[in-house]
Design brief:
Layout lengths: L1 H9 L3 E15 L10 E6 L5 E6 L6 E6 L1 H8 L4 E2 L5 E11 L2 E11 L4 E12 L5 H16 L8 H4 L9 H18 L9 E5 L1
Parallel strand pairs: 8-9
Antiparallel strand pairs: 1-2, 1-5, 1-6, 2-3, 3-4, 6-7, 7-8
Subcellular location: Nucleus
GO biological process, one term: regulation of transcription by RNA polymerase II
Pfam families: Med20
Length: about 200
């Protein structure tokens, strides 16, 4: 991660603290035939008193934002939900500020039975004055290109699917992390160690 952090710091960004995010997926005991969907539960250092949960994997999936007691409730529903060996993903890193941009550079690790089994670099960029993604899309693209070099020509699929006047909320960040975490979990089947850099936007 030091290479990415060096690039960010060379741009003039200031380290303003640490950043962490964890996600754990709870699978319905009844199985797919029951039409119950997996429940993805998130905690983030930016919102220390909150638990976020997304039901299913679609962009329009039902979700809830609640206090930390909600997570304790989910853990007690052992007759309804179970976890798997690669259910949990943890991101740990640093948070930077550069003018009106907030940058979170972290390493995502899928936790196996005893240790991390797959690692990926994740960079999250936020343009703090604006909560309407469509209004700052070009600025975000230019900033990310300056920072990372080659980037995707189109915005993340989740952002592209938002309405033009739709405001951004914390749950939208969780949706984007979930997209990348799902891809990470699929990668574990190859036994390969991922060292790619993934950028999320908000």
């Amino acid at each position: 991660m030091s290479v990415v952090e060096n690039i960010i710091e060379q741009m003039g960004a200031t380290n303003v603290g640490v950043y962490s995010l964890d996600a754990e997926t709870f699978y319905p005991v009844a199985g797919p035939a029951s039409n119950q969907k997996p429940l993805h539960v998130f905690h983030c250092s930016d919102y220390p008193a909150s638990t976020f949960a997304i039901s299913g994997d679609s962009a329009d999936a039902a979700y809830v934002a609640a206090d930390l007691m909600f997570f304790q409730l989910i853990k007690k529903l052992q007759n309804a939900y179970v976890t798997k060996p690669i259910s949990k993903v943890e991101c740990r890193g640093k948070k930077y500020k550069l003018a009106d941009f907030a940058i979170r550079a972290s390493v995502a690790s899928i936790m196996g039975s005893f240790k991390a089994v797959l690692v990926e670099k994740v960079i999250q960029v936020e343009y703090t004055p604006c909560i309407i993604p469509s209004l700052c899309a070009d600025l975000m693209k230019e900033f990310c290109s300056d920072m990372l070099g080659k980037i995707a020509a189109a915005p993340p699929a989740y952002i592209a699917g938002m309405r033009s006047n739709q405001g951004y909320a914390p749950i939208d960040t969780m949706h984007q992390y979930q997209y990348h975490f799902q891809r990470l979990r699929r990668t574990t089947g190859t036994g390969a160690l991922s060292q790619t850099t993934t950028a999320t936007s908000e």
